[in-house]
């Protein structure tokens, strides 16, 4: 291991693969002084719920919290644009001292009257948890007064990690599930959970299922509508894309409505094809679905394969570092990079669990650095040690890559380019190729001048 002095509290969360057996320390709060790349509970709830396009999203807290708005998810809508507006109760000192319930009630009624949303989500922030506002009571009152679901989201940032925000969002969504009509839903039907329509990805995936003959009842929550969420309990299968964010909702729906679920990934040729085949296998009593799936996969891979092989000739032997939110995304990235001839020398996630890291250990090459809830110092040190050519992460990782003088590929939720599905793999490969091959790096001091 490099001579980097890792914080003692983080020693169980940084490992070099295969030198010795290890158990990853994870599912813990960030260590003090680590400057974690993680976001807070509030952010976790926002990124899951924001794509519900016809709902009102009101942040109950200081105005600064409203910086977590639509653009941090980049979720596109085919209709309503209400989710793109950021609303806040803008709590000031007076409300902190005397309580903010009255202001919350006034904001909700004014906004509902002005925008006529199908539902409203109210996000409780840190200060609300401290002063003890009864957000639930206010929401119940406004629900009776306005006749729409007004749902509290208990996302006080200090309560835990971003993963706890995912749980708060799932609990909020579950209040809508089961309250709508399910007639006319096909027996060959699914919900897609954990797909947020970044750059229009949900539309691409829905098109695949349409060609397969599978009805998509609801996408949770990309380009979503409240009415579709309400009737989502009528689907025959839940397909969970971002397991870290939405697995809990799938489990709740299975317990309450008996809907089975499968975990999939729509990133990379291999995983996208497997996802479609797994759905077809669930409906094996409809052989026409399987036949249509085979034809679809064959046509889609045939369209992108020649370009990918050309990219592979240039990228073969290049090294990549990966740090993303959910470990499930890391699995797909490792496979996709391997398909392009690249090796992964550093990989980590913000919200992975023990099972995720056991699988990462099996997938990664010997000597690969595996980290949980990392920080900029660790990431930059291992990037230098491993001489990575590319860093794949999110908005908070981009400055690290550019300061190191290496290429960066945005695979987080702020991006505007679709990377899911077969076409998405082509977009990803193109971005990796052009980034690694860019002539700009000859003018940048590699690894920050080291």
TrEMBL record:
Q: What keywords sit in the KW lines?
A: Nitrogen fixation
Would you say which domain of life the source belongs to? Bacteria
Annotated Nitrogenase/oxidoreductase component domain residues: 40-436
Coiled-coil segments: none
GO biological process annotation, one example:
protein-containing complex assembly
* Pathway(s) it belongs to: Cofactor biosynthesis; Fe-Mo cofactor biosynthesis
As for family, the record states: Belongs to the NifD/NifK/NifE/NifN family.
Function recorded in the entry: This protein may play a role in the biosynthesis of the prosthetic group of nitrogenase (FeMo cofactor).
**Name of the featured protein:** Nitrogenase iron-molybdenum cofactor biosynthesis protein NifE
State the organism named in the record.
Desulfoluna spongiiphila
